[in-house]
Design a protein that fits this description.
The protein is α+β, with helices and mostly antiparallel strands. It is about 50% helix and about 15% strand. It has twelve helices and nine strands. The strands form two sheets. It has a five-stranded mixed β-barrel. Strands 8-9 form a two-stranded antiparallel ribbon. The two termini are about 45 Å apart. Its EC number is 1.-.-.-. This is Acyl-CoA dehydrogenase family protein. InterPro entries: Acyl-CoA_Oxase/DH_mid-dom_sf, AcylCo_DH-like_C, AcylCo_DH/oxidase_C, AcylCoA_DH/ox_N, AcylCoA_DH/ox_N_sf, AcylCoA_DH/oxidase_NM_dom_sf. GO terms for molecular function: oxidoreductase activity.
Length: about 400
């Protein structure tokens, strides 16, 4: 195994970093999150049309670049460094792989080229706050998280040869602005209970929610007798398996994004402690400060190694590495951001400085995709780490 990045991968990282350095500074991020869309449409045009990020991991037959999830993860690491608000995660990491895996030829031919070009944004909507459960990140996703045939959740019913959806999804990434919703809903009642995925192109009530992390827009989506199209064209029986596979790949991408943010938070803190003086000397020269930053550096580098391995493994078709890497990356980001705020002093948690944004990203991602201890526990269960074995006496 050659662990070095290829020339193409290095070029992707360099190009994305340069583009974001020009268009996504701290003031740009603050301005973008205040817009109705929650992101800068001009920046999204740059990422999509000029850099091709939404189609990076899509086949060339659908207008994509034809790279693996590894290249997309490395690009997202650079996006994480700047905390750039964009629909890249919801569109390219969550929605597009489901369309590619489960969609009919007609659905793929219609939708994937539009996603690859950036013309169409999409997202995954699951009932309530069950995103991490649906993606099998914190446990088995074979349960009744989609509704279970009872009131609540998201229900799908046939009416006159078409499907109609009823229910609510409380945490939908970019749900207020996405042009296409992929909705997980329960169908069949108790007799033929199953979870299916549907395409919703219009209808319903979408309300942008106040979130811990303003750079990661979430919305509440309410559907009442909304027309929907079954993803796949027939009653696909592998929905939960497909969601779990997408969840593992998404976790690897999120881990790379988180280590990008953690690395940048550490860089900003190191820059600050070299400038801030106390008792006539830079505070970065104090041994206690050096030790604290050294500990953060070790955590970030360890998390980066885990994230890169998970990205490589998923690119090779291997699974079950993403969740553990995500747990380590989120913990590293939380530590780097918290230490950054501490060492920046009073300005570290104010709106005028971006240090608090990195801490909020860590908290927001853990609320959406974690928490860390459950990510680790599920990874241990999947690996059989604590299986009970009979001991001969």
């Amino acid at each position: 195994m050659d662990a070095r990045f290829t020339a193409e991968q290095d070029e992707i990282r360099r190009t994305v970093r340069e583009a974001l350095a020009k268009r996504c500074g701290p003031e740009d991020v603050r301005a973008a999150v205040r817009t109705a869309a929650g992101h800068d449409p001009a920046l999204w045009t740059t990422l999509a049309e000029q850099l091709g990020l939404p189609g990076l991991a899509l086949p060339e037959a659908y207008g994509g670049v034809g790279c693996t999830i590894t290249e997309l993860a490395l690009a997202c690491e650079e996006v994480g460094r700047s905390l750039a608000p964009s629909p890249l995660l919801s569109t390219a990491v969550l929605a597009a792989p489901l369309l590619l895996t489960l969609g009919t030829d007609a659905q793929r031919a219609e939708l994937l080229p539009r996603i690859a070009s950036g013309e169409l944004t999409a997202t995954l909507a699951v009932p309530g706050t069950a995103l991490a459960t649906a993606l099998a990140l914190v446990g088995d996703n074979q349960g009744d998280w989609a509704g279970g045939g009872r009131a609540g959740g998201m229900q799908a019913r046939r009416a006159g040869g078409t499907w109609r959806l009823y229910g609510e999804a409380a945490q939908v990434l970019d749900g207020h602005s996405a042009g296409l919703l992929i909705v997980a809903a329960h169908a069949g009642g108790f007799a033929r209970s199953r979870t299916l995925l549907f395409l919703v192109r219009e209808g319903g009530v979408r309300t942008r929610q106040t979130a811990i992390d303003e750079t990661r827009s979430c919305a509440r989506v309410q559907l009442r007798d909304v027309d929907a199209e079954l993803l796949g064209g027939d009653e696909w029986v592998g929905t939960t398996e497909a969601l779990a596979a997408v969840g593992d790949r998404a976790a690897a991408v999120l881990a790379c994004e988180a280590v990008g943010a953690a690395g940048r938070a550490l860089e900003r803190t190191v820059e600050y402690v070299k400038q801030r003086e106390q008792f006539g000397r830079a505070i970065g020269s104090f041994q206690a400060v050096k030790h604290r930053l050294a500990d953060v550096y070790v955590r970030v580098q360890a998390a980066r190694s885990a994230a890169y391995y998970a990205a490589w493994a998923t690119g090779q078709g291997e699974e079950k590495a993403g969740g553990l890497a995500l747990a380590q990356a989120l913990e590293a980001l939380r530590t780097a951001a918290a230490e950054g705020i501490q060492l920046h002093g009073g300005i570290g948690f104010t709106w005028e400085h971006e240090a608090h944004l990195y801490f909020k990203r860590a908290a927001g991602d853990e609320a959406l995709f974690g928490p860390v201890h459950r990510l680790r526990a599920h990874a241990a269960d999947m690996a059989g780490l604590f299986e009970q074995r009979e001991v001969a006496v």
